[in-house]
Amino acid sequence: MDQKLNYTKLYENYSPKIRRYLNCNFSIEDSEDLLQDIFIKVYNSLPNFRGEASLNTWIYRIATNSVIDKIKSNVHKFAKAQQELNTTTLHYNNSQFTTTFEKQIEKEEMNHCIRQFINELTEKNRVVFVLSQYEDLSNKEIAEVLNISIGSVKIRLHRAKETLKASLSQNCHIYFDDCNEMSCEPVSSCEH
Length: 192
Known about the structure:
Layout: H1 3-23, H2 28-45, H3 55-72, H4 95-119, H5 123-133, H6 139-146, H7 150-171, E1 172-176, E2 182-186
Antiparallel strand pairs: 1-2
């Protein structure tokens, strides 16, 4: 199999995971741009891949370094642009659809609120938290991606969870709705 076919297969297998990882940190537009940059780096570095780490870990390491570089650059603004939904102009006859639509809006607002608290974590703790909770990487894989010890991963993950728990309990009222799904309401306002 030639290099081009390998790259195509690599992109097909890993781009959805890396895109999801990037979407936790950036807007969709920024994520798409960064995704292309990451896979250009992967393509250019593929001949130098020695197999000392798994391919998955190697690609996440490139992605994580790219994320850190992007965050450190002055180009990226930490606040994501959010589209405002004007629900007063939407009229639906189907009350069940309206309820579903309202629930979807509530979930988006809750996720936005939670993402704000995640974005307030220190860079080190946020990266470990996102790789663990959103990307389902093991502590060992995270340690390899970030080139730190497993103990450091555990400490950072614990600190991230404790900080989030404190922030959420201080700023939000968390409860389970009728469908037994977690929901939250700001105590005063999640726009802190």
